[in-house]
Amino acid sequence: MAISTETMQWLLDGDPALRWQVERDLLRVPEQVWQATRARVATEGFGAALLARQDADGQWAGGAYFPAGFFGSAEAEEPGQPWTATTWSLNTLREWGVDAAVLGDTAERLAQNSRWEYDDLPYWGGEVDVCINAYTLANGAWLGADVAALARWFPAHRLEDGGWNCEAEEGDSVRSSFHSTLNALRGMLAYERLTGDTSLREARHSGEEYLLRRRLLYRESTGEQVGPFVGRFVYPSRHRYSALTALDHFREASLVEGRAPDDRISDAVELVRAARQADGTWTQTTPLAGRTWFPVDVGEGHPSRWLTLIGTRVLDWAGRA
What is the DSSP letter of 226? Predict the structure, then answer.
């Protein structure tokens, strides 16, 4: 089912952070058109509002992964976590397409002023959590920080089954996680795309094979669906795995490498297709709990522009292939 004119216009009426991706990925307008829209993200709407929250020391909310004062507070006892600190803010700005030049000397200010809540480690060196390190790798490559040493961390900490798990460094698991592995893959792909360095490609391919062997959805041991999260599509997805976020990664990887989709994605594609509403939209599920700077999408049960963008481009890519 092709997207309707009304739905396409609804997407185009969204924030510039979303609109430029609609223009590039769905309408395939000339590059100068979508690049002009992309440039507006830093000065209008969501992007400008998030940039305005940056602290003078280069951080957001006074912390690396958690806002200052979080630990020991009443908020720390609530479900979820705040999404306002530096790493989450950088992830968001990068994913929205803000030009690194807009952030000026942010990389240098973070090197000087920001430390991880874990062992007070320096920001651009990362820490022990693979998801945090994946975000830091991608954000460092984007902002021009030296993250070459952090890049070498990923092959060294890959598990025997080919993927990664955030709990492995604490000795709590020897098996990879869908969530952790996808976050590692997305970080490594962003690093390659931003720097041109292909040294992590073999490690990334092993993690992709971990997911593909499971057809992006299932436990390899039993063949059962790994969990209901695979079909619960939410924006922002943050660290959360779903069939939709996984397919969007494989779509980007195929474009970067010029390779066709693997046949083993077919069940995940059908899961995404089945979630599409009659009007061509996808509905927001339960947003991840935790404080944000401001809302960037709709509440549960409403048609989501972001999910509709991602779902449409995934199905378009899979269908064209």
Answer: S
